[in-house]
Amino acid sequence: MITINNKNEEYKLVAVSDNKLNLNIDDKPSKVSFISEIKTFYLVIKKDSMSDLRQLKLGLAEFVKQAKGDTNIDFKSICDLIPEVKSEIIFNVICDVISFETHKFVTYKKEIKNVKFNFNIEASNEYKILLQTNEIKNKYVNYARDLQDFPPNIGTSEFYGEKLKNDAAKIEGLTVTVLKNKELKALDMNLVLAVNQGSSHEANVIVLEYNNNSGGEKVALVGKGICFDTGGYDLKPSVFIEGMKFDMTGAAIVMSIAMALAEAKAKINFVAVGLFTDNKIGEKAILPESIVRSKNGLTVEINNTDAEGRLVLADGITYAIREKGADKVYDIATLTGATAMALGESASGVFTEYDEMWNELHKTSLYTTERFWRLPVFDEHKEQVQQDSELADLINSCKKGPGGSTAAAFLTFFAEDKKFLHIDCSRVVRVDLKGQGYIVKTMFELFKK
């Protein structure tokens, strides 16, 4: 639990730049030392090649793991050592790390230790409103992490459909619709159904709607929710099968953003579309070189069944525009290995032809300290998506070129005349086999005004 000026706690955390106060302090950047005689933790932040905020994040995470009881956090000592960073951002980082590290995460172990101490930030009362915002924001960062972490034998499309329907229904003003195969067929969402063909579970497309800005634009948030991705008949080698339960992360993030915004009573109109299904192999699975007509009428040659994410997104984008009247579209997906190779765990790739959308996202990310990197969609990428198929309007996987850009180019054909931004977050959203709930904070801050 996080409080502000609540009471004097038993322990204290102070930020220092060296060991002048006590020679027993390890004064390497981001290190935390506990001096038992005075029940004080010392977190070192000093000029180094490692950024000040990274030192703070790493040090706070280590401190929470070492915590011995309820602790006061000397907020001023931290701000004094990082004067170039706004105190509001520092406060947010403290809340982010504590919430992240103390969360009771999904586990199936018999026994697990959770930190249950109180962390009292010694800051002025003006931060109480900011704390309330952080509580909602980080609640849904952790909610997204939980959605990510369910094992694939439990976290099926039907499981997520039922869970999200029940959880979202508890939030005032948020309406929930679940589209299964019968409804998807009636809506001509044939690309979603094509990906779903090999699964024993029906697709569940979760639609969350919220309207709290009369006369304002309607934003669409569309998320890829492949609950497990085998690659289909273009079967992944075993080295790439690990972690494929995380291929539903885009939908987990989108659902969590939507629920956070509704709970915060944000002045926004949105429709959030989470496209949950499997991509499995079997007698009914879609075959390579199949041609399927999308919801917007364009035919698609599926020459690679492992490029399935862009297929479900395509129908999801069309649904948001044509059925729900979206004026602007953002999609989030663990889409390509190419973007993962380019950026690794350092940042999410962003593809958009609209500078203002990128500028707004980038500015917000500086506030949340989450990282994004803009990558190109050139005309030749779009031309390749059209020209690489002899029989269909588009091809889902180009025969050459940068995979991240051609995947984004494919999606632009379904955005119609709407402003569109695509986020490819293939590796940044998890560390090893633990979900990180990445992107929720930035999108929440972008839209909560």
From TrEMBL:
One MF term in the entry's GO annotations: metalloaminopeptidase activity
CDD domains: Peptidase_M17 (cd00433)
GO biological process, any: proteolysis
Keywords, sorted A to Z: Aminopeptidase, Hydrolase, Protease
Domain of life: Bacteria
Alphabetized Gene3D superfamilies for the sequence: Zn peptidases
Domain spans labelled Cytosol aminopeptidase: 304-311
Single GO cellular component term: cytoplasm
Function statement: Presumably involved in the processing and regular turnover of intracellular proteins. Catalyzes the removal of unsubstituted N-terminal amino acids from various peptides.
Family statement drawn from the similarity comment of this UniProt entry: Belongs to the peptidase M17 family.
Name used for this protein in its record: Probable cytosol aminopeptidase
Organism: Mesoplasma melaleucae
Gene: pepA
